[in-house]
Amino acid sequence: MAGRKKEAANQKIGADFTVNTVLFLLCLAFLSACQVKSFIPGNDFVNLYVDLKLVSVQFAGQTEQAETARRVLLSQYKISPSQYEKLYQTLLKHPDAWDGFYARVLERLERLKKQSMNEGLEKPEL
Question: pTM for the whole thing?
Answer without folding.
Answer: 0.64
